[in-house]
Amino acid sequence: MLLKAPLLLGLITLVSDVCSSDFVDISRKANHFALGVEFAVFHFNQVYPDEYAYKLLWVRRSQRKQFTLIYLMELELGQTICSKQDEDLENCPLQEGLREKKVDCTFVVDIRPWLSQFSLLNSTCVQK
């Protein structure tokens, strides 16, 4: 019986480590993270009530939830002069002067690459 107690304690410790919900820093260039950023910006443009499209300016934070493909990203987006229907937003110039707008957003995206499925779990944006 005494031999089983340390084994049980070790198993409980292992399970609590595996079930941890902590996010860890990852490279901004990580393959699935980059896809998640594209999805988040696309989703933002679909739901944000503005006639102009926004594009990525800067990734402030890039993290992944341990043992999952759930990503936490803090992004700075800038308003472009292009409409949301334009195809090439990456090459679209930003608004300047009085029309310039920037938004700071935090997104949590769950990615299932084997199904080509992306889910936005949470998003919060604040205009600067």
TrEMBL record:
Gene Ontology CC terms, in alphabetical order: extracellular region
SMART domains: CY
UniProt cross-references to InterPro entries, sorted A to Z: Cystatin_dom (IPR000010), Cystatin_sf (IPR046350), Cystatin_spermatogenesis (IPR052333)
Occurrences of domain Cystatin (ranges): 18-126
Signal peptide extent: 1-20
Protein location: Secreted
Keywords associated with the record: Disulfide bond, Protease inhibitor, Secreted, Signal, Thiol protease inhibitor
Molecular function terms, GO-annotated: cysteine-type endopeptidase inhibitor activity
Gene3D superfamilies: 3.10.450.10
Superkingdom of the organism of origin: Eukaryota
Recorded family membership: Belongs to the cystatin family.
Protein name (Swiss-Prot/TrEMBL): Probable cystatin-15 isoform X1
